[in-house]
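User: I want to check something. If I give you two sequences, will you return the structure for each one separately, not as a complex?

Assistant: Yes, each is folded on its own. Here is the first sequence with its structure:
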Amino acid sequence: QTQLVESGGGLVQPGGSLRLSCEASGFSIRYYAMMWYRQAPGKERELVARIAAEGGSTTLADSVKGRFTITRDNAKNTVYLQMDNLKPGDTAVYYCRVHTAEDQWGQGTQVSDSS
């Protein structure tokens, strides 16, 4: 059974940092591109960051460039999203996604502005 489990969300003040983790099971992430999405209240889900399988090249949404970093640890079967200089507009549920034989999503982790 394949599964994605996100963790690391929480309350954070503007300018603060969080690191989200997405741990995969049932398959090896080394063969797949991995993605982070987010969905804010009343808004559509949007792609935040993507990391390729081969070479690990990354793509970031314009709204998070220079503040967020996506990395992968294939040995730990985990993808990370380092979020620095957080802004109120970053408040959302953050989801991990992968296309294997099917489209898979995690359950999400909440990131909220504590101000």
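And separately, the second sequence with its own structure:
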Amino acid sequence: IQLVQSGAEVRTPGTSVKVSCKASGYTFTSYFINWLRQAPGQGFEWMGRIDPEDGKAKYAETFQGRVAFTADTSTNTVYVELTRVTFNDTAVYYCARGGKPYERWGQGTQVTVTS
């Protein structure tokens, strides 16, 4: 079972960033995928989750209107897109399978917002 994320991204404020998480080794539609992030010196922040079976997503209130999760069942990949990024969005972004405790995690994707 693996979750493999896309590589590091650098963005300027006000732009968008999209990170992918490709799942393998299990039935993709059987588990939610969560997105979390960890900013420098901070704990993990849950961003929300998506059900790959029907594409329905639930977002943390902090990110409402600025984040979108999508799932592609043809490639077993989920995506998070964050719009209107700010310096505060600099963090390592993780996908994680299922419910707590998340037993499978992606390796993390560094997103850096810089001018």
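Because they were folded independently, the notes below concern the second chain alone. The CA atoms of residues 42 and 91 lie 9 Å apart. The radius of gyration is 13 Å.
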